[in-house]
Design brief:
The chain is of the alpha+beta class. The protein is 17% helix and 24% strand. The protein has 2 helices and 4 strands. A 4-stranded antiparallel sheet has the order 2-3-1-4, covered by helices on one side. The radius of gyration is 16 Å and the shape is globular.
Length: 103
Amino acid sequence: MIWMWEARATPGRLEDLRDWAIDALAGREGEVYLSRQPGGDLVVVILRLPDAPPADADAVTAAHVDPASTIEGPAAAPLPAPPDGLVAGAPQAWPFHQIHPPR
């Protein structure tokens, strides 16, 4: 499973949020990206975790859902909350399964 996490940095705190994001990966496989935007700078984290099998494979098959398209896991990216003052607004996170190229 791949998590995309993004947060808008508090003005003047982009480098601090970037450094926090790198530390938050805690040695796990992932990348950190920066995006300078007129409405506020963003930090994006891509975190790669092992895929978990669907909780109920029979239910997925019965519903005619491609098992590769189901999302299982926690409701939020497995990153700690950023320290107070680093983000403007709430961070957003989305889980994905890599389809192509196959891993």
